[in-house]
Amino acid sequence: MSLLPDVMSLTGTPFFVTAIVAAVLAVVVPLLVWHRVGGPVVVRGAVRLFMVVTAQASAVLVVFVAVNNANGLYDTWGDLLGTESHVAAAPDLGADGTGGHGLGQEPRVRQSFAPAGDSDLGVGVRVTQLTGRVSGAEGEVYVWLPPQYDDPAYRNKAFPVVELLPGHPGSARDWFTNLDVTGQLRPMMASGEVHPFILVAPRTSLLARQDTGCANVPGVVNADTWLSVDVRTMVTDTFRALTGADGWAVAGLSAGAHCSAKLTVEHPDRYRAGIALSGYNDPAAESGSITAGDPALRRATDPLWMLTHAKRPPSVSLFLTGQPGDGYEDGLALRAAAKPPTKVWVRQTSGGHLNAVWRPLLPDMFRWLSGQVSGVQTVKGSAVGPRTGRPRTVRPGGRAADVRLPEGGSVRGEK
């Protein structure tokens, strides 16, 4: 395998090291040759100016790569330059976003995965390139399986799933790299402190330099269906994953937090719980949102509007965090609007809109989540096999006991 792709990978360590070396050379070389530059005055001035500009550009590149890696902003050069689109088609799929296909009605197709091959992602993360059969979107999806998954004692067990969504711009890798979700949760899952969740991180940057708002916009993108239908179906087709809403949750940060709340409230038939870290309700809070420009679409994709205009309160649970002016008030508004059986917890944070603030929240968030969704359940028959035209069924399972409410939390909407 050629080393060039690794060196040129925007998020790769080799590229970061190469940028640092180039920056050092861009400073050292001028110091060594500054007084040796020959030729006319104009030529000497031009050469020296070029060396100064090169040194400055190299330093800026190092800072950019460091910031990009620390915040998970751009995954590829195509994302950065806005030259890639991950939408092959965007048909009108109707109000439920399925286009009449129906969840669990299509023939089962197992997806091939390969090891992610990047130590920054942690141990056990695998990746695939998925082409959405319903949405018309495509992109990479990262999956991590809990410690119990390959244990022979669990061979007839199906596991709960959490979809992990980054901000905008944002990389699907962010939860694994900067938030270290697997490093934090692996020992908690092994000890039984939290459910052994399958963690799924799909690409959410589907349009060049635009935030999809995780919405369906016919003719533009079907981001909602990509996440809530295609990725979800791929996971249940390929892994021993629970198929019902009781076994699924979605968690997001920043723009991904908006998506998490939106998807949970909009699809109680697909998700039982959502975690939103420093999110917002009004999609206009994100300047690049494609849903903010149309008043009707802006309302329809606002989770607060959806909650207050729902025909019946959805049977879902939300946990929202934020600091004043950055998600906290939006969480309070959702909590105030919640009516049973909808349940909303809100936790105030401080310290900024940063991974460093969100990362230490994960253990408490997943303790909470383990009290909202089903745990591992025994599967009747084969866990992964051909469909028979109906979703496979699972025996009723219990929920985690003795789950505490994270410090500073509050709830409204419970009986």
Task: Produce the secondary structure layout.
Elements: H1 4-8, H2 13-33, H3 41-71, H4 77-81, E1 114-115, E2 126-131, E3 138-144, E4 157-158, E5 161-165, H5 174-177, H6 181-190, E6 198-202, E7 216-217, E8 221-222, H7 223-238, E9 248-253, H8 255-266, E10 273-277, H9 295-300, H10 303-308, E11 317-322, H11 328-337, E12 343-348, H12 355-358, H13 362-370, E13 377-378, E14 411-412
Parallel strand pairs: 5-6, 5-9, 9-10, 10-11, 11-12
Antiparallel strand pairs: 1-2, 2-3, 3-6, 4-13, 7-8, 12-14
Helix pairs in contact: 2-3
Structure description:
By secondary structure, the chain is of the alpha/beta class. The chain contains 13 helices and 14 strands. Strands 1-2-3-6-5-9-10-11-12-14 form a ten-stranded mixed sheet, with helices on both faces. Helix 2 packs antiparallel against helix 3.
Q: Care to give the gist of this entry?
A:
The chain is of the alpha/beta class.
User: What kind of sheet is the major sheet?
Assistant: 10 strands, mixed
Number of strands: 14
Helix content: 25-40%
Number of helices: 13
**Rg value:** 23 Å
Uncertain stretches? 1-7, 382-415
Straight-line N-to-C gap: 60 Å
**Based on CA inertia axes, which overall geometry fits?**
globular
Q: Major sheet: order of its strands?
A: 1-2-3-6-5-9-10-11-12-14
> What sequence of helices (H) and strands (E) makes up the elements?
HHHHEEEEEHHEEEHEHEHHEHEHHEE
What share of residues are in beta strands?
Answer: 5-15%
Q: Quaternary state, please?
A: single chain
**Helix-strand category:** alpha/beta
Mean pLDDT: 86
